[in-house]
Design brief:
The structure holds 2 protein chains of 2 kinds. By secondary structure, chain A is of the alpha+beta class. Chain A has helices spanning 102-107, 153-171; strands spanning 15-17, 20-24, 30-35, 53-56, 59-63, 69-72, 83-87, 92-98, 124-129, 132-140, 143-149. By secondary structure, chain B is an alpha+beta fold. Classes of the chains: A alpha+beta, B alpha+beta.
Chain lengths: 173, 974
């Protein structure tokens, strides 16, 4: 049988509206790591504290919820007996929201305190985006990576683009 | 008469170089950019703007702000129609179409004004007393007729498709109101480096500084305000929000606010309004104070205004009030009279009940009262009763100055009552009423400009200390510091009707009547008279009404108390609060990887657990669901069918204690399951009822995959997380949802193996086995399970390959005389097999009720086991799952119907059970039903009656085992 062809998680991107762009982001393989109680993973990797994003070369460890981190930019390490490891590469759709009004757009949909003092560069948070449960990573002062469940990619893009349009139209008043 | 009532050179907010055309009741008008509807109409000499709620009295403008009770209008924007818009708030734009409300015939000759002549009969409680019989007439005749006659604007009945927005903001300090106190507070906090949000409901910040002609530090008030605003705007830590009204105070420093984003422009792409949720570590309420009228006979005529409304309209928009009579009981009214005189406005009379010295540049009537007005559609004369008798004084405007009520509403939103302050005859906020919210300036009864400035700075300093910031040294500028003398006068006793609540047409008589009829508590009076229940929530009327009540009941005002102020402070459109949630925005849409292909095949989609799922796949000539469904069922039973089952919840469970954990959440034992095997499992809630069912596959010694039903996927994940955290926190077990990681397809039918073979998979898997497979270069998983009763497989691949795999499966099935099948066929197949879904496990059934009592293992404990053994859940007479077949094969069954013994009437006492699922079975040639019947398992073979009162259907059915087809299960095992 011929090889199966992969379908992208999201279509209709990139979008540029006003002073914000929305682009698809491919994090490569994503591995969820959930350490068992009391285990020390430091021989293999440094496990992030809540909200922490650890970058080591190409490898990134993103705090992704209670006792869970997402590893991107590298293969899943052997953590037998130390942590539960699940492949999350296909479970999520990732987009990047960037530009001068990125924070303003996000503030239309997400209740998080997005001020740099509360959500600085290089941190992550689990939150909601309108109705969607999302993982947010701040990658620059005015750029965020957003991961949502893959089946809801259409709603994610719809809600973000509607907010982008509203913010742009307000600026043009 | 174009803008004939404008004072040359006046009007801070209007741009005389930019005329703006709009219509009012279809007639073209012209105003200037910056005008409100109210100011533009006043400038054109129009005082009559609407009809009152109950008596259809002519009404005009009372105020210059959001507290306006009278000038309510309807704005028409295409299909959109917004009623009860305050003309004092709505800014005009080119092409704006406004209409007056609540009249039959032209505004100037309202036929329903007959209600006013009948006023003696229409007092409070009239409807309740009069329309008592015949009882049936109330709903059909009286209420519709009354509703037509009373009320304000109307909706279009169409969807509001304009853009609305919701947003969140966070700050260290939220300052509410940008008058002298608010500006000062914001300035101090901003210079200290705090993140400040300054919100004000007006277009320009400055509050009363824009209207009173007060000087600050030798500068004109508006200039000083502008210089502070300019500094604030230049600071990166300050956000200025104009046209934004803070509407409510909620828990934990959260405030609601409504911003009029583009309501001052013709509809376009920009949001009309934005509903903000502002989370502030601290907040300062500097919302100022609202002036109150004095109730005297006929005080509701167009041309009767509040003194603050008059000065607001004049200084902001240059409206010429004509000859003015001022009726005041306090020094601020007197100051207004002096200020107007200085600006060249003719004060025909200053009327004050206090014995003040008569040494002014205008006629003063001391120890006098206004006892009436004349003028059919607008004020012509004011009747003043003084020592020498009653004089009729000609005037175009009567300005009422009954004193000031601090705007303390937000401090009451968490249920604290304000305190009465005798000195200013007003309620003041109780300190600490809302945690984190301080009050400054006139909002806490400090009325002079100097006091407001000083209070704003001082309160900001205290708040900064609380936030751990050092207050900078900001000198408080000098300003007028007049004392505020007031002699309370709530109502003039001179016969006739004296209005308290202009919006809901409540007079002093109504309040007295309420007291007389026993509604002596302020809350009862409010509901009996409807005082304070109109769109303005009684902002100008509450205090006067309760003062009149206090008088009528012989109590003091503090004893009488006040009603509860609740959010929102101003009307908030539902469209703004629900922004983004209209139509499909109500919930996220979840799309399957097979979605595009299913739609291309013509499948109608239905929603299940937010997922869009194909209902059936019609072929040429199949015009209804039934034909397609029958065919799909037959093809599955005779050949093969494929269906997307990715919607089922999938939870990956790992760890040394994973098996032990699953034994605890499932009723049956999972620890004995061998790797490479799958077992059907049942979970109970803590209360012993069934939570969910599904399969559990052991992928490795310490690795399980739990599947849940589609609708309960989130519920089961939450349940397992709870059990883990609450009871087994230290165990070596971790869970992760992998629902979205895998696309999973069911292949069912005698030719299922052949489909797998076409995909290059050798299917030598035993029933209830699972194994990793590779197909098309992709690592997947194969399970041999069946929800159809046929030989069945489920094959899972990473989601990105789902669309491609579905295509292959459909092609392979078609080549074998098979098909893709949808939810309808899936349901028929499972009903034929008696498999349950959440139609059966609906939350009120036990494992035994659904015939799975044996699945609750006696050898171990599990969640819900103890509770499931409570007497009520185990006693005889419970309704048990049964199958139902029509005695007459052709008859249709319906879900939701109830079951009765054949000759019993269809009443509650005789109810024997109910039907949960039905399906037209092409396999058995009749409709089949699943349902719950009292002691049902012992009643197989009995004939009972299915009674569907909703559809008028009565069918005799035979009770049978719920497994209608292949009870031995040879087909799915073979």
């Amino acid at each position: 049988m011929a090889d199966l062809i992969a379908t992208p998680a999201v279509t209709g991107l990139p979008l540029a509206i006003g002073r914000v762009t929305l682009t698809a982001f491919d994090p490569g393989p994503v591995t969820a790591i959930a350490p068992y109680p009391g285990r020390d993973l430091s021989a293999v990797l440094r496990f992030p504290a809540p909200g922490e994003v650890i970058e080591e070369g190409a490898r990134r460890l993103i705090w992704a919820g209670r006792e869970m981190a997402f590893l991107t930019g590298g293969p899943a390490p052997d953590l037998t007996g130390l942590a539960a490891v699940t492949d999350q590469s296909d479970g999520w759709v990732w987009v990047t929201l960037a530009g001068r009004d990125a924070t303003a757009v996000l503030a239309r949909l997400c209740p998080l305190d997005l001020r740099a003092s509360a959500f600085p560069l290089g941190t992550s948070a689990k939150s909601v985006l309108q109705h969607l449960s999302v993982l947010l990573v701040r990658t620059a002062e005015d750029a965020f990576q957003i991961a949502a469940y893959r089946s809801m990619a259409g709603t994610l893009v719809h809600d973000l683009s509607a907010a982008m349009q509203a913010v742009a139209a307000r600026a043009a008043l | 008469m174009s803008q004939s009532h404008r004072i040359p050179g006046k009007g801070l907010l209007i741009d005389r170089a930019r005329p703006v055309r709009f219509t009012f009741d279809g007639r073209a008008h012209e105003g200037f950019a910056g005008d409100t509807l109210a100011s533009a109409l006043l400038a054109n000499g129009t005082r009559l703007m609407g009809r009152s709620f109950k008596y259809h009295r002519p009404r005009g403008v009372m105020t210059a702000g959001s507290e306006e009770p009278s000038a309510l209008m309807q704005i028409h924007e295409g299909a959109q129609q917004t009623p009860n818009v305050r003309a004092t708030v709505q800014e005009i734009y080119e092409g704006l179409e406004a209409r007056s409300q609540n009249h039959l015939g032209p505004l100037s000759f309202d036929l329903l004004a007959v209600n006013d002549w009948m006023a003696p009969f229409l007092s409070a409680g009239f409807y309740y007393k009069t329309f008592m019989w015949p009882r049936a007439f109330w709903e059909k005749l009286y209420e519709p007729a009354i509703r037509r006659a009373a009320g304000l604007g109307s909706l279009s009945g169409r969807h509001d498709e304009a853009v609305y927005e919701k947003a969140f903001a966070h700050c260290d300090l939220l300052v509410i109101g940008a008058g002298p106190a608010g500006l000062m507070a914001a300035l101090v906090a901003a210079r200290a480096g705090a993140d400040v949000i300054l919100a004000d409901e007006e277009v320009r910040m400055g509050g009363r500084l824009l209207a009173d002609g007060a000087e600050v530090d030798g500068q004109a008030g508006p200039d000083w305000a502008a210089s502070v605003v300019a500094e604030l705007a230049s600071l990166p830590n300050v956000r200025l929000m104009t046209r934004t009204t803070v509407t409510g105070a909620y828990d934990d420093g959260t405030f609601g606010a409504l911003e009029r984003v583009s309501l001052h422009r013709a509809p376009g792409d920009a949001p009309r309004e934005c509903f903000w949720r502002i989370v502030a570590r601290r907040a300062i309420l500097a919302a100022g104070a609202l002036e109150r009228p004095i109730a005297h006979p006929d005080n509701d005529r167009p041309g009767v205004m509040l003194a603050s409304g008059l000065t607001g309209q004049m200084t902001r928009f240059g409206v010429n009030p004509g000859r003015v009579v001022i009726f005041s009981n306090n020094d601020s009214g007197l100051a207004t009279a002096r200020s107007l005189t200085a600006q060249g406005i003719e004060i025909a009379a200053y009327v004050d009940p206090r014995p003040i010295p008569v040494t002014e540049d205008f006629p003063v009537y001391a120890g006098a009262e206004v006892v009436g007005t004349r003028g059919r559609l607008g004020l012509r004369d004011v009747a003043v009763r003084h020592k020498g008798g009653i004089s009729m004084i000609e005037a175009r405007t009567l300005a009422l100055a009954g004193g000031w009520n601090p705007t303390l509403h937000l401090t009451c939103h968490l249920n604290t009552r304000p305190q009465w302050d005798e000195k200013i005859a007003a309620f003041v906020p109780k300190p600490g009423a809302v945690p984190g919210l301080e009050v400054a300036g006139a909002a806490r009864g400090r009325f002079s400009t100097a006091a407001c400035l000083a209070d704003g700075a001082q309160v900001a300093g205290e708040v900064l200390a609380d936030l751990g910031l050092r207050a900078p040294d900001v000198p408080v500028p000098g300003a007028e510091d007049r004392p505020y003398g007031i002699a309370p006068l709530w109502a003039v006793d001179a016969g006739g009707r004296a209005w308290l609540d202009f919006a809901n047409d409540v007079t002093t008589k109504d309040v007295k009547l309420a007291a007389q009829e026993g509604f002596r508590s302020v809350e009862h009076m409010k509901r009996y008279t409807t005082q304070g229940m109109a769109p303005d929530q009684g902002k100008t009327s509450n205090v006067a009404a309760l003062a009149v009540l206090a008088d009528a009941t012989g109590q003091e005002i503090p004893v009488t108390g006040t009603t509860t102020y609740r959010p929102p402070f101003i009307p908030v459109s539902i469209a703004a609060m629900g922004a983004g949630g209209r139509a499909e925005g109500f919930a996220p849409r979840r799309l399957l990887t097979s979605d595009a292909r299913s739609r291309a095949m013509g499948a109608p989609m239905i929603e299940a657990g937010l997922w869009s799922r194909p209902s059936y796949f019609p072929r040429d000539g199949e015009t209804d669901w039934r034909t397609a469904c029958d065919r799909e069922v037959r093809q599955v039973r005779e050949a093969v069918g494929v269906a997307d089952v990715s919607t089922l919840g999938k939870i990956d469970v790992q760890g040394a204690d994973a098996a032990r954990f699953l034994d605890f959440v499932y009723t049956n034992t999972m620890s004995t399951l061998a790797p490479g095997k799958v077992r059907y499992g049942l979970m109970l809630r803590e209360d012993g009822f069934v939570l969910d069912d599904g399969t559990c596959a052991r992928l490795g010694p310490e690795h399980f995959l739990v599947t849940t039903t589609t609708a309960a996927a989130g519920l089961v994940m939450r349940h397992m997380d709870f059990v883990h955290q609450a009871f087994c926190g230290g165990w070596d077990v971790r869970m992760a949802s992998v629902t979205e990681s895998w696309a999973q397809f069911c292949i069912a039918g005698p030719k299922a193996g052949a489909v797998l073979a076409a995909l290059g998979i050798t299917a030598d898997l035993p029933f209830m086995g699972c194994a990793p497979v590779t197909l098309g270069g992709v690592a997947g998983r194969l399970f041999r399970i069946s929800f159809s009763g046929e030989q069945g497989y489920e094959i899972a691949v990473p989601t990105r390959y789902g669309a491609a795999l579905f295509d292959r499966l459909v092609e392979a099935a078609h080549a074998l005389d098979g098909c893709a099948y949808g939810m309808e066929a899936l349901n028929v197949l499972r009903v034929e097999k008696g498999f349950i879904t959440h139609a059966e496990i609906h939350g009120r059934v036990t494992a035994d009720d659904v015939g799975l009592g044996k699945m609750v293992s006696g050898k171990k404990d599990c969640i819900g086991k103890a509770a499931s053994q409570r007497p009520g859940l185990t006693e005889a007479g419970r309704e048990q799952l049964v199958g139902l077949m029509p005695v007459n094969q052709g008859e249709v069954l319906s879900a939701g119907a109830h079951l009765y013994n054949e000759r019993d009437p269809a009443v509650r006492e005789h109810n024997q059970g109910y039907v949960t699922s039905v399906a037209p079975s092409p396999t058995l040639g009749c409709w089949l039903g699943l349902g719950f019947l009292k002691d049902g398992r012992a009643r197989h073979g009995q004939v009972i009656r299915l009674d569907d009162g909703l559809r008028g259907r009565k069918v005799l059915v035979e009770v049978c085992d719920p497994v209608f087809f292949d009870p031995e299960g040879g087909r799915m095992r073979g």
